[in-house]
Amino acid sequence: MRTADDTLMPLNACELEIDLFCKGLRVPETVPLDGARGLSRTRAGLGSGLEVVIPARSWLKDAIWVNAPVVESFAKQSPYVLGGSPHEGYVIHDDRDGTCYPVTIPREPMWYHQPTSRDVPMSRVGVLQGTYLGIYVNPVCGFWHTTPKLNCRFCTTGMNVGDAEVVEKAIEDVIETCHAAKGQSGITFVHFNGGYQGTRGIELIEPYVRAVKERVGLLVGVQLTPERDFARYDALIDLGVDHLSFCVEFLDPGWFERICPGKARMLGQDLFFDAMAYCARKLPKGAVSGEIIAGVEPIERTIEAIDRITALGAFPTVCIFRPTVGSDMQDWPPPRYEDMRAVMAHVYEACRRHWIPIGAAPNIEVSIVVNPDDTALLAPRTGAFYGFELWRRSMRLIAGPVFRSRLRPRSRRKSGTLGAPPEPRDPAQAA
Ligand code: SF4
User: Fold this and answer.
1) Which of 70, 163, 227, 368 is the most exposed, having the fewest neighbouring CB atoms within 10 Å of its CB?
2) Whole-structure pTM value
3) What distance lies between CA 265 and its chain's CA centroid?
4) SS3 400
5) 196, 145 in Cβ contact below 8 A?
């Protein structure tokens, strides 16, 4: 029988990540998952898979985190099967050619079982998705309360908030959970999201941002539907927010309207790009992202969306469509690997062309999407590639002290902002 050490490895870590998102993973009942992170149906439901870490074996990246779909019906036909145990190590076996990929299954953190001082289990406050902490903080997204419902068709937030997670999170519970996750799991980043709240989304989220910045010291990201009064973003930036993301999801107006009826009717697609452009001008390059879903609209439109987002100085967060159980799209087919690989290769190319400093922030590995810096593993090794990689490396070094300062509670640090990284005047110079 082939072992992990003597097999061929035809896919690199990023390619395997993409293929797992597209095909899912079978987990036989005989494979023990003692101590592994449980399947977590929180927020939009994308964490419903098994957290897996794939060693990247590359100078570009140590490891890639992926939340592999396991409960969706397509995953039951996957050629990928998990084998091994916590003691001998895990492998993912590809039934088609017998290839074995050694992987790690990350352990559930101790703090998941710890209650806050208000006796709320911390796992019902926040959840690790890769190496960062995700917390849905606002009341249930307003698109779930309309008649008929205007929720995004791929989303399950309206089912998860109040079930897998607490409906409204007290600031103290959030702070204690952030402290535990920082102290025990070494997180550097907390991501707050809160769906559609009319004109009150930022107002509701501000106290959490302020408290984390003051008392914990973490990089903080916020994801809400866009608001028309852009001055509210100024206030959020003044509070010290490090990252803002806007989930436009689709570029094609027809697909946007069909899959995201609430966003289309109440906000309009242009508002997402306008807010993204505004914030990208206010924050350092690469601090703003545009989130899109690949695998539903034609990939040419996804590629256009990537170009549009990167042209604004933002980075694309591309989520491979997952027909999440319980969502309106649960019976839709997952996308094809070949298409998704082409999309992800374009992510790298677009970030390189626009000098977006992807992967500059320390220890942020998001398991529910393909991280933009994962896609370096897909790029052809040209002079331009090496030039960009050299620049990215220097950006990480330059930004290091600034991030370290921002990881201290504000009450204990001097002010300091993350300045935009310098760009080479001529790409050829950098190469
Ligand atoms: S805006 Fe859409 S994706 Fe976000 S929580 Fe609401 S329904 Fe879900």
Assistant:
1) 163
2) 0.91
3) 26
4) helix
5) no
Do residues 82 and 101 lie in contact, with contact meaning Cβ atoms separated by under 8 Å? no
Residue 406, burial from CB neighbour count under 10 angstroms (0-12, 13-18, 19+): buried
Ligand 1 binding pocket includes 155 (Cβ within 6 Å): yes
3-state helix, strand, coil in the chain (%, to 5): 40, 20, 45
Whether 317 is in the pocket of ligand 1, judged by its Cβ within 6 Å, is no
H/E stretch holding 338 reads helix 337-353
Q: What is the pLDDT of residues 242-277, one digit of tens each?
A: 999 999 999 999 999 999 999 999 999 999 999 999
Q: Are 98 and 7 in contact (CB under 8 A)?
A: yes
Flag whether pLDDT at 223 surpasses 80. yes
Secondary structure (DSSP) of 130-189: BTEEEEE-SSS-GGGSSSS----TT--HHHHBTTTB-SS--HHHHHHHHHHHHHHH---E
Q: Is 140 in the pocket of ligand 1 (CB under 6 A)?
A: no
In the numeric block, the tokens 């003691």 are attached to 87
Mutate which of 43, 138, 140, 141 for ligand 1? The one with the most ligand atoms within 8 Å of its CB, which is: 141
423, two tokens = 């760009």
**The pLDDT of residue 43 is above 60:** no
**Each residue of 155-195: pLDDT tens digit?**
988 776 555 556 678 999 999 999 999 999 999 999 999 89
